[in-house]
């Protein structure tokens, strides 16, 4: 950034840096490693020539790719260890991101640690930050299809880590109740169906204006779902089997607009996975919508 053309509002620069730190913390966890990854990212940026930097149309995307690549390399390092006391102390002077701390619970971080580096990277970049498939593929070094498979594998692994898997008939009953609460805009009932520490992911894939960060906590998840599924004419909520479990399929003007699946533990929803990316919904819309054996609730 050597000339006037490189300048930008300070607020944008600070927001850009915080975004990179968020990406690194989700991928690497707490401690100094995330800060070091971002420092290395900016070191690479300033290592470019003026002409190379001028040729980058969107510096934020370039920086995000670089941060993701650096984090993936560190995740793949054979001797990667949890941060030691000296690393935690080194982070003491960094202002904590309270919202991010709420989103990344210790339980979730431990679960992410059990994933392979490629699975973790694909999951974080796709489900947490809703980056376009091509960007995720560039960072992970795989094709978009392979990254989609890695993301789904990560989801399965996270679900398998639940302490008390819910039997199918109980899962079905609770998802039915969730659908009914959404259709009636009953926030009190919906909150009662959610774990206090529920977390929701909204995968828009950069193709629809969806939430780009996870929503954490029963109250916030309930409000996000009710906002997403607010009553509109010609919108219907169906129940259908997806990946062997009951899910909600949202149709608008007879087209599938969202597929929402749920992880349930101890009679409460712990994770909500909302797929809104039109690319991922194509197979649902190629032919006539799947038969709905459970009936539907209609808005409007």
From TrEMBL:
Superkingdom as given in the UniProt entry: Bacteria
Name listed for the protein in its UniProt record: RNA polymerase subunit sigma
Annotated source species: Streptomyces bobili
């Amino acid at each position: 950034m050597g000339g006037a053309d490189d300048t930008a509002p300070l607020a944008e620069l600070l927001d850009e840096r915080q975004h990179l730190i968020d990406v690194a913390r989700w991928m690497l966890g707490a401690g100094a490693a995330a800060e070091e990854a971002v420092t290395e990212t900016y070191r690479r940026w300033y290592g470019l020539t003026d002409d190379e930097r001028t040729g980058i149309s969107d510096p934020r995307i370039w920086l995000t790719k670089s941060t993701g690549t650096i984090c993936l390399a560190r995740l793949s390092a054979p001797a990667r260890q949890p941060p030691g006391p000296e690393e935690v102390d080194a982070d003491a002077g960094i202002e904590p991101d309270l919202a991010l701390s709420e989103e990344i619970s210790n339980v979730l971080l431990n679960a992410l640690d059990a994933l392979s580096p490629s699975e973790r990277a694909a999951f974080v970049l796709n489900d947490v930050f809703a980056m376009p498939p091509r960007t995720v593929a560039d960072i992970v070094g795989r094709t978009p299809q392979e990254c989609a498979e890695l993301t789904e594998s990560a989801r399965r692994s996270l679900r398998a880590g639940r302490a008390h898997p819910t039997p199918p008939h109980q899962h079905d009953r609770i998802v039915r109740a969730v659908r009914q609460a959404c259709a009636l805009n009953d926030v009190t009932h919906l909150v009662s169906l959610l774990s206090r520490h529920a977390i929701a992911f909204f995968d828009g894939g950069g193709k629809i204006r969806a939430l780009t960060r996870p929503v954490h906590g029963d109250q916030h998840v309930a409000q996000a779902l009710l906002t997403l599924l607010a009553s509109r004419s010609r919108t219907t909520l169906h129940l259908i089997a997806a990946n062997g479990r009951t899910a909600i399929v949202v149709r608008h003007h007879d087209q599938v607009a969202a597929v929402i699946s749920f992880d349930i533990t101890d009679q409460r929803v712990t994770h909500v996975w909302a797929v809104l990316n039109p690319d991922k919904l194509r197979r649902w819309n190629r032919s006539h919508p799947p038969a709905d054996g459970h009936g539907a609730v209609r808005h409007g």
